[in-house]
Write a structure and sequence with these properties.
49% of the residues lie in helices and 14% in strands. By secondary structure, it is an alpha/beta fold. The longest helix has 16 residues. It starts with a helix and ends in a 9-residue tail after the last helix.
Amino acid sequence: MAEDVILRELKDGVLLLTLNRPKANAFDSPMVARLQSLLKEAARDDSVRCVLLKASGKLFSAGQDVTEFGGGEPISFRKHLLRNYNPLILQMRRLEKPILAAIQGAAAGAALGIVLACDLRVATPEARFVVGFGGIGLAPDSAVSLLLPALIGLGRAAQAAYFNDAISAEQALDWGLLNALVPAEELEATAWAWADRLAQGPVGAMGLAKRDFNKAMLPNLEEVLDYESHNQEIAGVGADHKEGLAAFLEKRAAKYTK
């Protein structure tokens, strides 16, 4: 059931949302819709003062489940993004309550965008951050093209996107992508302590601060998301994506020729 792919628990003002789609917590459309619904509820519920986003298993999330695109009629990447990730990222940034991510293992592709859209991020040394889109011949979406350079700089973001190399937890902390790095056995306790502190703080003022940050740093977020979906539509019908996706599904190295 869709309710099972993201678990919900409310405790002392902290809404805990746990990604729970084994084995890689990859997002499909119903899982994205579930997260959208939970965030909509969080915005309306005054008893929710902070959102803590974490994942079950060894990975945070592999991003979009590409097997959703692997057969049948060709999909429109633009329509897919306009329905799924664009409104989700906007919801996260417009939620006037703090969102904290607790990350173990990989956060890749669209999941990286979700992590970057959070207000604060704590992780374990095993965490790693992968742009991922280039691995299947696509361009960044889910606001990765805006949020990643904003946090780590344009040159580092371009290197991560073009080479598709993972950003290690240590690099992520040094570059400002992470707020804290803690041992794996301390992640849950640290995340709860941070979330509890946020929930007990002046959440209304934090919401106004978030508005300020959005205005100062991300005033064109909605425009960028729309432009990403436009470019992803182009990439999605290109030879690079056709070869990249086939190579991924066939578990072989891609051979790009165009």
